[in-house]
Design brief:
alpha/beta, Rossmann fold, 2 domains, five-stranded parallel sheet, 9 helices, HAD-like_sf, phosphatase activity, magnesium, HAD_sf, EC 3.1.3.-
Length: about 260
């Protein structure tokens, strides 16, 4: 195998658990930062800006800047830019998605007439927002969802995720969306562009087999499973496709 020249990291369950940092991961990333080793945080969260993600990590002791963050909102905007520069977009989502789209020069409209309907997590969702999205899709707009996460972990428990909101439009329009976030491989190519490495040179680090590990497998890159979050070693060993590596925590990982 080629030497590892960069890392992609998940966040929740890998870098922190809710509001508590996972110290082994914090220390590992800080060592990467101190030596100038390339890395990127890859998150399905489309509601936060890269600045907000970086601020949360900094508050937990991670020496990071917004340039080290790739959200599914950013990846969505980059994907559409390649497909249809200057498109008109009807958006369901929050500030992280809106800013990512506007920074790429898209016109975000409030009308049910657009080139694309883009759905991200919206904790202020209304019937009217969904109605306009459905009308736009039925009128020919391309249907994109930032990610398919059906539930998200919070201090209150698991709450409806973006995949749950997206499913309303899927059912009512009978149209399937194109998903951008993990475990779909779209963000792999975008992440590699951002850190200037090839698939053979990077490793995806995560705790969730269904999102992080399958993201790496689907994207053709090596994977490192850490037992600090959703899935433990017993579950991993039952899977048909296994991660390239598995450790209890990043304290055990010495490849960098």
């Amino acid at each position: 195998m080629n030497p590892i020249k960069g890392y992609l990291f998940d966040l929740d369950g890998t870098m922190y658990a809710g509001t508590a940092p996972i110290q082994a991961a914090v220390d590992f990333v800080n060592r990467l930062e101190a030596t100038g080793f390339p890395y990127l945080f890859v998150t399905n969260n489309a509601s936060m800006t890269p600045e907000q993600v970086a601020d949360k990590l900094v508050s937990m002791g991670v020496h990071v800047t917004p340039e080290h963050v790739l959200t599914s909102a950013m990846a969505t905007a980059r994907y559409i830019e390649k497909m249809t520069p200057g498109a008109t977009i009807y958006m369901i989502g929050e500030d992280g998605l809106r800013l990512a789209l506007e920074e790429r020069g898209f016109h975000v409209t409030e009308e049910a007439k657009a080139d694309y309907v883009v759905v991200g997590l919206d904790r202020h969702i209304t019937y009217e927002k969904l109605a306009k999205g459905a009308l736009a899709i039925r009128s020919g707009a391309r249907f994109i969802s930032t990610n398919g996460d059906i539930a998200i972990p919070t201090e209150r428990g698991f709450l409806p995720g973006n995949g749950a909101l997206t499913s309303v439009l899927t059912v009512t329009t009978e149209k399937d969306p194109f998903f951008i976030g993990k475990p779909e491989p779209v963000m792999v190519d975008i992440a590699l562009e951002m850190i200037g490495l090839t698939k053979e040179e990077v490793v995806m680090v995560g705790d969730n087999y269904h999102t992080d590990i399958l993201f790496g497998i689907n994207g053709g890159i090596r994977t490192l499973h850490v037992n600090s979050g959703v899935h433990g070693p017993a579950f991993i060993q039952e899977q048909e496709k296994l991660p390239t590596y598995m450790v209890e925590s990043l304290d055990e990982w010495t490849h960098a």
